[in-house]
Amino acid sequence: MLATSTQLKILTKQTRKLPPHLVKRGEIYYFRLAIPKDLRHEFPHNEIKRSLKTSSLRAAKLLAAAYEMECLSLFATLRARNISFSTPFDSLKPTNRIGHTSTQGSNAPLLSQFIEAYIAEKKPFWSERTQLGFTSAFKLILTIIGDKRVPQITRADCVSCRDQLLNGRGKSPNTSATTRSPKTVNQYIGLLNSICKLAVDQGILAKNPAERLRLSLPTNLKEQRKAYSPAQIQLIFKNLPDKSSEYPDHYWMPVIALYSGLRREEIAQLHLSNIIELDGIVCFDISGEHLKTVTSARIVPVHPELIKLGFLKYYESIKLLTGGETNETYLFPTLNTDRHGKRGRWFGDWYRKFLRKHVGINDPKLNFHSFRHTFATALKHAEVDASMMAELLGHTMSGETLGRYAKNYPPSMLVKAVSRVNYISQ
Question: 0.90 exceeded by the pTM?
Fold first, then answer.
């Protein structure tokens, strides 16, 4: 199909926007530079051509500018020394020639430039929250390592960065902890490793100085978070605000978490329309845009104890206030939404203070997520089948037969499993 005159004008306009030495094939940008006539006898081809391995124009511009400077530097060296190559230039990695000279000179991109290019390339695939978090992390990494040329980053720089992060470099003075956990440090090192790996792929670094720097984590995952003991459960619910208080979420969210294992954000984003009846059984329909994983979407029957405590009466009271509208009404309308669209953050801040000041629990391994561990432990002690536990908790089922071919349990079976959770008898 022939392009119209309008389409040709658009294509011409887009082509003109590309800077010199930058071309685009499909979705990928390439660096191309013609070899000067007086030096062509030194090369088997008349141009230098290299894929920039990026679809981001901003990233491509930075990489192309760096390659251009290095090529011009190489041309100057050849003219001065009359050096010839026995190997084809376009088959050489820039680290063999261009990258090597830039380590000593000022042609290679700065770490800040490379980070900027990396963010520009990955930004379309990140959520706003991820972008803010990664940008902040990169800023701290840059502060620790310094804005040096990428080829000058050493293994010692990366090790020092890891150790300083572990010791709390850059932490807010308002936080109680002065150090970072190995898990958090590994997240920073993962970003540094990604940057260095990209530099290797682009031929700017010969070897990744940040690989194999992750800290060892506890092999027993159960030790990372604790479940509440029966005595702690009684203490928590003895001190919870009344269900008829100004903020009913302060009462209902911990109770729901204890008897369903739902995550904080899963409860916070519930609409009235997420309370459904299937086969005569009232259930939580866990769905929405802020689920942790694909398998998090699930059906969880409402525990009989929640009904005894008046959960359905609360549901009807909110429904009555909205004139019966359920699709757009949150189950807990007093919760505020943060700038990332999540509703559980402010409640999490309140619960941490409540646990510390009113209950007297200061163990960092005990928090709101501990309700989920408590519920899982109760299911296990009640000898609920492992595959049914996985479905209730929104975990991926192990094994191809269970994970791919097995159908979900009906609500009638799920409610029997949930009903076996009984904290009073513990």
Answer: no
